[in-house]
């Protein structure tokens, strides 16, 4: 498995398996188990996904040595704050049946994420987390966090796909030594991604699926990807992207698809901040 090296020297697989929108416990456990048997070693979940326990059972069921795995989970907004983050971390660790996390992320840039970051810095220094990072942080908020704290986030997980390529943000993250990770690499099928003429043409040329082309495009940009599927054949297909390479012309063609706009939500919208602040989940 190809890896990237985080700013603290930790190696992270460049392709992982995500479990967003897989709340059914049995389905989630079986999908994660199938992914692990396929060869995935990075598993990405979150407290807010309500499936950490299922992920933990799949990990245990796989029998794969802990040191071979890279497990990520995330802190939800309602638990932002120093004390609440400590408690939330312990709860996630228990649900996952783990002694430590490889990566712990602040899920949203709202609430008392400064207090949460101080707690995460302490947990990191104690060896309970191998790396700490953030998700959905725009460059201004990320820089503010970097300037006023001791540990630079290792990862920023943000919406990134052919229709929202985040080119300038990618360059900014590289300058700061923060690894870019994509969520929704397929844009959840929005914008007719799987029927897009540019992507289907490139896929036909390489005898690959559109999904494989998109994942390969991200990997060649050195962006970590976490595709999700509950279907065995798709899980295997999304992992099979290392036996071909996109040409410079392929990459240029895909670059023309960028709309420079999110297909989901704007983190500069006050209504989004309000929604996230009031979004409570039964953790």
Structural write-up:
The protein has helices at 25-38, 52-62, 82-96, 113-125, 139-147, 167-176, 197-206, 210-220, 232-239, 248-255, 270-278; strands spanning 3-5, 11-13, 16-18, 42-44, 70-75, 103-106, 132-135, 155-159, 179-183, 224-225. The strands form two sheets. Strands 3-4-5-6-7-8-9-10 form an eight-stranded parallel β-sheet. Strands 1-2 form a two-stranded antiparallel ribbon. The model has no long low-confidence stretch (mean pLDDT 97). α5 (139-147) links the parallel β7 and β8. α2 packs across α3. The chain is globular and about 55 Å long. The longest helix has 15 residues, at 82-96. It has 283 residues and is α/β, with parallel strands linked by helices. The chain has a single domain, classed as TIM Barrel (Alpha-Beta Barrel). The chain is 42% helix and 13% strand.
For the largest beta sheet, what order do the strands appear in spatially? 3-4-5-6-7-8-9-10
Judging from the principal axes of the Cα atoms, what is the shape?
Answer: globular
Q: CATH homologous superfamily name?
A: NADP-dependent oxidoreductase domain
How far is the N terminus from the C terminus? 33 Å
Strand fraction = 5-15%
CATH class: Alpha Beta
Q: Briefly note the structural class of the backbone.
A: alpha/beta
Low-confidence segments:
none
Q: What's the tally of helices?
A: 11
CATH fold label: TIM Barrel
> Mean of the pLDDT scores?
97
Summarize the amount of helix as a percent range.
Answer: 40-55%
The description of the largest β-sheet is: 8 strands, parallel
Element order, helices and strands?
Answer: EEEHEHEHEHEHEHEHHEHHH
What is the correct CATH architecture? Answer: Alpha-Beta Barrel
How many structural domains does the protein architecture include? Answer: 1
Give the total of beta strands: 10
Radius of gyration: 18 Å
Pfam families: Aldo_ket_red
Domain NADP-dependent oxidoreductase: 22-257
Family: Belongs to the aldo/keto reductase family.
InterPro entries: AKR, Aldo/ket_reductase_CS, NAD(P)_OxRdtase_dom_sf, NADP_OxRdtase_dom
